[in-house]
Amino acid sequence: MLETTGAKKPVTTNPILDATGVAKNYGAVAALRNASLSVLPGEVHALMGANGAGKSTLVKILTGAVRPSGGRIQIRGETREFSSPGAARRAGLVPVYQEPSLIPDLDIASNLRLTRTPVEPFAEWVRELGVNDLSLGATARDVPLAIQRVLDLARALAAEPHVLLLDEMTAALPADLAERVVDVVRRQSAAGRSVIFISHRFVEIAAMCDRATVLRDGETVGVLKIETGVEERIVELMLGAKIEKARGVTHGARSTATVAGPPRVAVRNLAVGKLQDVSFELANGEVAGVVALEGQGQDELFEALAGARKPSAGTIEVDGAAVRFAHPADAIRAGLALVPGDRSEALLMHRSVRENIALPFSAPFRRWGPIALRKERATVTAAIERLQIDTRAQREVQRLSGGNQQKVTIARWIAAETRTILCFDPTRGIDVRTKREIYRLLRELAGQGFSVLYYTSELEEVQHVCDRAIVIFGGRVVDVLPVEIADEAALTRAAYGLPRQSEVAP
Amino acid sequence: MIRLIRRNAWVAGLCVLFILLAVTTKLIQPDYGAGDFGSLMRAVLPYAFAVAAQTVVVIAGGIDLSVAAMMAVTSVTAAAMMNGASESHALFVVPFVLALGLCLGALNGFLIVWTRVPDIVVTLSTLFVFQGVALLILDAPGGGAAEWLKGLVVGTVPIPFLPESVTAWIPKALIVLVICLAVVWIPLRRSQLGLSIYAIGSSELAAFRSGVSVARTKIAAYAIGGLFAAMGGLSLTLSTGIGAPIPGPYLLASVAAVVLGGVALGGGKGGLLGPIIAVIVLRLVRTDLTLLAVDPNATTIIEGLIMVIVVMLGAFLAMRGRTR
């Protein structure tokens, strides 16, 4: 077609980025078989796929971090081969990775110099993205994680890329910053730039993407236009089979008989870090959600409960008896175990799935003598089966997908028969299917009398798993919402410390 | 000013330590004079270059066990080439030996990058290789050095506008050290390469993603380390007038000074000034202990204790500074 100039932006059908038939083999394992991705100028293009579908591999190939085993990548009709991230950058494809890529020991100014990013536009983008008090002399390590991600984005924007690639950009961001990001991305596309957006959040995808490419098992299985109702189609494509709508799926398992006796865990007037005075109870067989904006002290709460940090005041009771944890081992002995959002904090990445699950059995220092291998094997196998962990790459946990890694963490505590599981944003960056498996699993556990404390940064999760939501703001519990009314809007209001809207009769 | 001190708190602390030690020295030995300081600096010279070599590599996130061996190779090469040769021949020898050091270092870096064998293993094996090479060049201490080169590190130079009582305390060895280090370090620190060295030491993955060529930067860091080691080897030949094929005690001393100098062994943090002052401090401690007639076997114990205490104290102060 001839190049016709539209009213607002130039509309051409020539894709700015066109990848076809991309394949990547790691030894005998094919991470990508036949992936294609075509991005038009001025388009926000979502790249979706369940964990293990090959998304991250495709991203690595597009950004020059990994060389493909086959296929062709064209930028503006020119075949390019990216041998390094630097080469991809020069070709106009600038990524923002899932983890911050600032050099931790350099200050911001040096980080900019390293990538030869002009300072002025960078500073402007930082302000635009809602961060006002940034000092260029600050060492990157000292900047909060969420802000680091924003700086990454600002740095990418300042490079004026043809194609901006955002990998789970909003996953670790608090709601207000995420909103800004969505806003800026939308304006980027209006200005004619292309964006590849990788996210598990349908809300954001619906808000800003034009089209979506769906990957499954290393292949592109569909390219869809984003319109109302497309979510179901995408999920269908991602999973390769029709699945029931998420909402309400887990509700059937709810309302287990309340167990008599003292609550499993009671927190009374706890002060730790930013928390000043927090009290709540966690019943046996309950999944209690914790909802808070970024940096309200939820990390400290979970660390205190897991024995990794000493509270400065207040008490923690387990089964009615006050406890004092000097070490996570104490908490684990009392039956409280943490499942952190960052898998690398929980797992021995270079060890096998089995060893990782069996770790709590062999960890007690005072237990001498050989490890009871037979018993261990049986327990571990049972846990693996129960969680349907994909064990094809079980010799090294780091080779599993993020979702499977998280399952290993949970499996470990199930195998150790830990009665209370503290989940801190356990589904961060995990695909929809695995997320649902985790929801179902937690509900099942609750049905058997396990207790779960569940912090999530994705508010919609609360209604999937929790029985009620404990909302923390300004160092205190500001509200406890029953699950029936704990929808995203209500939780958001509460998380910002606003009072409930006039109660609607159920 | 306060900010400057705060940013360089570690170096400032070392300076205080140095001054305390200097005062102690004067108390122990009231007639400790400029001449003694001059010979201290001459003794420090090879150590300081070894430390500089180690510092660059450690900042890049590596470690170089072959520092002392490289010094031995370059030292004997220089001594053998200058043996019986004319004075002007040395003009050619010096750049040749420096280039040799650069190449040896680059070889280390290249092997690490190419074979993907851990740096500690690669440089351990090159340590043995270089030791052997040094003995092949000169099987016993020998060779010679040009007179004008030897003169470079002995005595003092008159500096205009400074009275002699001051210049007496600025030995040539110190001036040579400062110039040699500054000529390499200052441009490096301001270049993209210098930034990249810090970057790969801090986080190799983040550096890679920022578009830094990790392999090339690593080779460059080891090469610069080799260059400093060659300077150290030359300084050995200059101060003794001969080449010594058996590596001196410079490897462990260099690692010690790097640690004491506030450079994180994990890489990415620290500068060159700290380790250099640290190595002078360590030498001065040894002088003091000798002056006090402490059993030489006990000296190493005291040196070890000082290192542990200073590093612990530093970490403790840094922690308190952060929580405040």
TrEMBL record, chain A:
Keyword Lipid metabolism applies: no
UniProt domain ABC transporter: residue ranges: 17-242, 260-499
CDD domains referenced in this protein's UniProt entry, alphabetically: ABC_Carb_Monos_I, ABC_Carb_Monos_II
GO molecular function annotation: ATP binding; ATP hydrolysis activity
Swiss-Prot/TrEMBL keywords: ATP-binding, Cell membrane, Membrane, Nucleotide-binding, Repeat, Sugar transport, Translocase, Transport
Keyword match Repeat: yes
PROSITE patterns xrefs: ABC_TRANSPORTER_1, ABC_TRANSPORTER_2
InterPro entries on file: AAA+_ATPase, ABC_carbohydrate_import_ATPase, ABC_transporter-like_ATP-bd, ABC_transporter-like_CS, P-loop_NTPase
Similarity-based family: Belongs to the ABC transporter superfamily.
Name of the molecule in the record: Ribose transport system ATP-binding protein
Automatic annotation (TrEMBL), chain B:
Protein name stated in the entry: Autoinducer 2 import system permease protein LsrD
Main location: membrane
Role, per record: Part of the ABC transporter complex LsrABCD involved in autoinducer 2 (AI-2) import. Probably responsible for the translocation of the substrate across the membrane.
InterPro entries: ABC_transp_permease
Transmembrane residue ranges: 48-78, 90-114, 120-138, 169-188, 219-242, 248-265, 272-294, 300-319
Pfam family, one: BPD_transp_2
Keywords: Cell inner membrane, Cell membrane, Membrane, Transmembrane, Transmembrane helix, Transport
Naturally occurring in which organism (per UniProt): Kaistia hirudinis
Quaternary structure (record): The complex is composed of two ATP-binding proteins (LsrA), two transmembrane proteins (LsrC and LsrD) and a solute-binding protein (LsrB).
Keyword check for Membrane: yes
Signal sequence segment: none
Subcellular location: Cell membrane
Topology within the bilayer: Multi-pass membrane protein
Keyword Transmembrane helix: yes
A single cellular component GO annotation: plasma membrane
Single GO molecular function: transmembrane transporter activity
